[in-house]
Amino acid sequence: MFRRNLLKTSAFRALLFSLQLPLTVVAGEMLPYTGIVDAQFRLADLSDKEHSLIDYRDKVVLVNFWASWCPPCIYEMPVLARLKKQLADRPFEILALNVGEKKYRVRKFVKLINFDLPVLLDTSRETFDQWGVRTLPTSFLVGADGRVRYRVQGDPDWEDENTLATLEKLLSEAAVSNAGRTTITDTNTNDKKAPQ
Question: Does pTM surpass 0.70?
Answer without folding.
Answer: yes
